[in-house]
């Protein structure tokens, strides 16, 4: 089964794409940052863009979201973010 990359944090173990081929959200939740397509980016009260969600998640400490899927032992946030062309070393 293919794995997919989170548009927010670059985590590459999503089971499904966050949006289908027609651009509709699949409501896939990222184990790393917790972003849910079709919910966080389309919230009724306060929708956030992918970039806004990323900035908030990083500013709050980039905490691992999932309580059922443990963070990989060799997890490296900087390398993960580079998968989506985000460089936090600057």
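Q: What amino acid sequence fits the structure above?
A:
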């Amino acid at each position: 089964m293919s794995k997919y990359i989170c548009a927010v944090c670059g985590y590459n173990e999503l089971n499904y794409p966050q949006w289908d081929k027609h651009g509709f959200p699949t409501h896939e939740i990222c184990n790393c940052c917790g972003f849910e397509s079709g919910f966080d980016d389309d919230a009724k009260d306060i929708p956030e863009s992918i970039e806004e969600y990323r900035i908030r998640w990083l500013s709050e400490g980039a905490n691992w979201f999932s309580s059922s899927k443990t963070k990989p032992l060799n997890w490296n946030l900087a390398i993960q973010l580079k998968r989506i062309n985000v460089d936090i070393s600057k």
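Q: And what stands out in the fold?
A: The first helix runs from residue 50 to 59.
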